[in-house]
Every structure is written in C-alpha cells, then in structure tokens.
Amino acid sequence: MRSYYEHNNIDGRPKIMLVGKGARGLGFSFAPMGKLLREAPSQGTWLDTKVVCSKPCHGMNLLSTESEDYLYNPCTGYCSSYHTRGRFAYVPNHILSMMHDSVRTPEDHAFGVGNRNAGLGFNLLTQEHVIVQILYHLKDFESRQYLLTFSVIAPGSVQDHFERPLPLNDMPPTYLSGVLYWMSEPRLGQSYERAIVSYNIATRMFGVIPCPSSIAMWNSTSPSQAFVVELEGILCAVHADPVADELDIWKLEHGRWDRACRIYLEDCSGYSLGANVVVPLAVDPKDGRIMLNTGRKLGLYDPTKQSVENLYDLDEVLRVTSSEQSPRVGVYEDVQMTKCGHYVEKFCLPKSPLEQPTFFDEPSPKLSGKRFTCSNGVQPLEGRTPLDSKVMPLVPMLYEESLARFPRVCKTRWLS
C-alpha cells in the first residue's frame, strides 16, 4: 500500500477531482477534472446540497454537509458516514433558554456548512484517521456569548469536549503532522485578538499559537478575514483584505512567523475578496504557482505575473443545459492535473457514529481512461435546485492516489 501511494504521488503535483451527486441521486460521484475536456457534466450529477471537501489526509478525504460527514477514499470506493455528534450532546438549561434569542446565522461562503465544521486528521501513534466535528449551539456576536461542542470520532470511540481555549471561526481546520489547527473567532468570547487553536490528536491536548501581529489585530469595523492553511507541509496563516483585494500569507517555521507571499487579486476576475472567500490550496512544485479556490473557480496564481490562470470555472458549467452541448466547458484544455480514472461504484447506508463504520474493501485499482464514480447512500436535501447560488453543483477536491481505508487493519504484535 505504501509503495502504491509513493509511486502514484511521486511528482507531488496537486491532483483534482470534481465532486457531484452519485448514481440514482445517492451519495457522491467523483470524476477527474480532465473529464470535462471530453464531455460536459449532465445535470443529473449536479449537487443539490452544500458540500465542503477537506484536503487529502493519508489517502482519505472528508466531505461535509450541514448534518453529516462522509469519509471517502475516492480511488477505491471506500466510504463511511457520521452524523453530527454535537446535536445529541447535553446542553445546560440556561444555555437552552439563551439559544432561542441568540444570533446563529451561518456565514454565507463556499467553505461553511451551517453552524458547524469538521476536520480530518491522523493519529500518528495508532496510525488511525480521526474526525473532529464542531457544532455551535449558541453564537451571539452582540453579547459575545457562545457554546460549541467539540467531538472527536476515532475507531471504536467518541469523545465530546465543551472546554477549549478559544472560540473557533467557521472555516474548516487544517491538518499537519498529527495536529489540527483552527483560527479563533475574535467576535466571540473575551479575547478581541485572533490566535490559532491547535489540537494534538495523539495527546488530546489543546494549545494556542499567537498570530503575526498584522493578523492578530481585529476590530468590529474591519471586513477582513483570517484562516489557516497548509502549504508545502508548513502551517500558514492567511489574512484576507477585501478592501485592497490582497491575501497576505504567513508561514510558521522553527517557532517564528515570516511572510511567505502576498497575493494581489484586484485584476483577477472572479477572485474578488469582496465577493468570495479565496483559499490557497496548494503550491505547484514544478513552477511555484499557488492554487486558489473560491468554490466557483479554481486557478493557479503566478506571483511573478500577479495573474491567475483558470483551471475550472463553475459559471461556465452552469451555462450547460444538457450533456449534448459543448464537450469543452468550464475546464481549460492545457491543464492535466490528474491521472486516476477508473470506475468504482459502491453503496453503504449512513450509520450512527456510535456504531462501527461500514466500509467496502476494494482491490487495487488499475488506471485507465474511464471515469469513475463512488457513492455511499447519502440522501440529498429536498427543495434545492442545481442553480441555487448557495449550492455549488460541482465542488473541486484535491486528492491523493491511495489504497487507504478506515479503520486500518493493525498487525498483531508479539512480545519476545
């Protein structure tokens, strides 16, 4: 399994799939982005519920909706689903009374799903994937009061935590070397400054990392946003200034912050920070260009030219009314960033997080020119249409070619 992973990811270049609705309206489908160079996607594959995808973590991806999380290996068809744990957690009576009058409107951007987010990590001691779910029961920006549930789901165990160092913002966390990281929410709690909250999966310990001073500063009149990402294996803090249309990226190395780069988006159509949250996903090791994702567009930013080359444009896809139309829509022909293209289709029913996950073992996939789909039986939300501006009909997702599954089969160790 390890040699397969190393061989198929040897170039280190980002690989992209588009996530859509699964066969017969069940689950999710996955298709290499280059597939759109050959045929336009049919409306039957368009998502009708909002989906946020994690970056790959040891061969797996987490897909989150407003009510559930789905763990996938898109290259094998492995899948497992988990309900939001925090919905069943005990909430004190005095908090329940406040919840009826509290402001809990979720942020409206491509990377938020209701009043919750979820992250995928890896326990380096047990060699197991771990899902961390966060759900806000109370979020009142006027009184700055809040209550959130922090749930950790691992094979055979579920833990809920109410105590954390700081409130967390609504952006998904980033994972790096056994630790998950979030940006704090300066509009809640006692602190008016931003900081990074860490959670060590193996030790189950929280920590707080100070931000660079330019990111830590916050005031209620500023429209700026901040979040954390992983780029080239380094923890980075991103400050988004919609007034200047600039992303300021800082990297943490050897215990100190240094500016990594500044991204200028004023002249980049479709990447305006006033209308979008723009997330740096990866750095192309071949030429140093930075992959940017708005949910509607995916592009490579050239720091030298200060311009973006589009890889994928959802607005172009939305102009397609049937699969009979133009076969070259929404994806730019000179971009070939994925090579995994076999066909896999499996189904599994959603299970309670207190139960052992159901999963399917697949043989080692063979690479071919065909598309592939993977589905796990999640039912779509009713009353949503593919053209709903809050629902992306197709969602881009980074992935790794891997045979990983969850939980991993551990070998018996004998004492000599």
Automatic annotation (TrEMBL):
InterPro entries xref list: SCF_F-box_component
Task: Please indicate which superkingdom the organism of origin belongs to.
Answer: Eukaryota
Annotated protein name in UniProt: F-box associated domain-containing protein
The organism is Triticum aestivum (Wheat)
